[in-house]
Amino acid sequence: MINTFSRFFSTILLAACSFFSASVNAALPQELDGKELPSLAPMLENVTPAVVNIATEGRVRQRQSPLFSDPFFRRFFQIPDQPIERKTSSLGSGVIVDAKRGLVLTNNHVIANAIQITVTLRDGRQVEAEIVGADPETDIAVLKMTAENLTALTTSDSDDLRVGDFVVAIGNPFGLGQTVTSGIISALSRSGLGIEEYEDFIQTDASINPGNSGGALVNLKGQLVGINTAIFSQSGASHGIGFAIPINLALRIMEQILDTGEVKRGFLGVSIQDITPELAEAFGLTKKSGALINKVLKDSPADKAGLLPGDIVILIDGKKIRNANDVRNRIGLLPVGERIKFKLLREGKEFELTILVDEGTSKKIKPKVTSELLIGVTVGDIQKGNPYFGKVKGVTVLEIKRGSLAWVSGLRTNDVITSVNKNPVKNLEEFLSSVDKKNDSLLLRIVRGNMATFIVIKK
User: Which ranges of 215-373 does DSSP label H, i.e. alpha helix?
Assistant: First the structure.
């Protein structure tokens, strides 16, 4: 009886093992109901070689303790009279958009403060890259590298995107290596987030994490529609709310950088505000969308075109204007010299005006500096519109070349220089005279934000 039961149990056990073994070794079905299973793999095989990993190394000047800034203290304790520097490193992503020229689009914050940039390709090759130019206000940077057999992504018209379109995010989160996530477009034209100076984001629920910055957002055809740039999170992890810069905007910025080496902002010459429910009622509006013009600068492009205070902007180049931020983005992201069409509401009647976008009233002056210490620095008088105008006397730093001696020493764009070697300077002429032929060292007092400090520039 026992032997019979044992033989029966063994037979059942062997059958079960054979069944599970067959199940484990069986291949996944290639078809379902006679149709091939959908997969992103074929598209990704063509796309992923164009998405690269970017590693940077840089140096940041640290502010010394007030105790260490005392020259007597440093001499007494024999502390070297040298600024404190801290090495920095960062990881991010980038997208090859021109294989022939080796051009890579990424975020400005990925390469900020970088003195060395290494691009790792999908096949494992590592290539040194240089910065062609960057625009912090839109967080776009253009890199250039020299390598053979590069793959570039084709681009799609990001203006054609719709909420609900499927998209795929590709990047290098947390330094893990190339990673792919998928989702949909959750919203378009997101702005007012305080992430960048000019915002017109694509919002997606495709997971974007630290390290994805600068990576690709592609559609299901494998076409580039955006550059991943930020997440909305209270913990630093992805919560399904990520933002990408539309590729149309990124390409416009890249073209300006390649053509002129800088991005010139469009200038309209108006002050605008959102339409509140109270203003909507006062102006007899049924909706509170649009932007109200409350001031027009004399001789500005807006003044020459005929705009008046009290006009309400409802469309720019056929695109609906929801608030004042929309107007600011539309103008600030347009290249200088372009004509744009406004649809306005004045005293209850609609009409159209065409305005030529200007560069603005703040002209950049490239000084003839004879000091080798300030090579790569562009300064100018403090103009109207600068928050320090009328409050501080000096010159403002309009541009500074990344990696220059002044930049490494801590000087930055928008700094206001108020004295040179302890001598006050009131304007550009006095500044140029103060730095003329001084090639050993310069002691500059600068105002930055709500603080003032001294920096030393020397070889």
Answer: 247-260, 277-282, 301-305, 324-332
